[in-house]
Amino acid sequence: MRTEISSVNELRDVLGQPLERVMRKDRAALAPEQIVWLRESPFCLLSTSAADGSCDVSPKGDPAGFVHVIDSSTIAVPERPGNKRADGYRNILENPHVGPLFVVPGRGDTLRINGRATILAEAPYFDDLVVKGNRPQLVVEVAIEQIFFHCGKAFLRSALWSPESWHPENVPFRAKIAKALERPDDSLEELEAYYGKPYAEGLYS
Fold first, then answer.
1. Distance CA 9, CA 11 (A)
2. Is 66 helix (H, G, I), strand (E, B) or coil?
3. How far are the Cα atoms of 92, 129, 204 from residue 190, in angstroms, in the given order?
4. Domain range annotation of the chain
5. Could you please report the per-residue DSSP string of 99-113?
6. Which pLDDT tens digit goes with each residue over 89-138?
7. Please, what is the average pLDDT of the chain?
8. Choices 2.40.50.140, 2.60.40.10, 2.30.110.10, 3.90.640.10: CATH for 17-157
């Protein structure tokens, strides 16, 4: 049997009401603690949606502190060489609303931001975002509308940071996935070589 939730009242009947302190925790500007979090975060997930509602979530990662804090209500996320699909960026051109989620390894809580994005090909701070000689190709500048820390229950339930829960050998390795789904005409040996040491050495080229 399927029971669909089709109204806010039905949703609240199942989930209950949030505590008042939960509703009050979001802000419209960065607090000092949130600036520290951004300085220590090496990874974020950038969520976007197109005008038709189709969605995308893109991982962004660099050494900790890669996100540039412009002021208390504006941040910039740099773009590095990637697969050039630009799904999220095309979404932003249609719909500027974005939702990056910032992670600090070992921590269960996350920093959530909702805001409006602008894609920039140049800005005065680009030189501050050079990593291993690589200047950003562009940045997503986010005007913050809402920011708050999300609780760590999902990370705790998943035991994400517990090495004893890690079993990477249970899924196909990257070369095998590419062979099956993306590059069937390449040999497995070629793909293993491609995703080996040269791949890691070419992250910024």
1. 5
2. coil
3. 36, 34, 21
4. 17-157, 167-201
5. EEEEE-TT-S-EEEE
6. 999 999 999 999 999 999 999 999 999 999 999 999 999 999 999 999 99
7. 94
8. 2.30.110.10
φ/ψ (deg, to 5) at 71: -160, -170
Supply 25's token pair. 């925790």
Q: What are phi and psi of 105, to 5 degrees?
A: -55, 135
Q: Are 46 and 113 in contact (CB under 8 A)?
A: no
Provide CB contacts within 8 A for 149, sequence distance 6+. 25, 34, 37, 109, 110, 111, 112
Cβ within 8 Å of residue 52, ≥6 positions away: none
Task: Let me know the angle formed at the C-alpha of 160 by 158 and 161, rounded to the nearest 5 degrees.
Answer: 140
Q: What is the pLDDT of residues 49-100, one digit of tens each?
A: 999 999 999 999 999 999 999 999 999 999 998 889 999 999 999 999 999 9
Q: Give the count of beta carbons closer than 10 Å to the beta carbon of residue 77.
A: 24
For residues 101 and 26, give the distance between their C-alpha atoms in angstroms, rounded to a whole number.
14
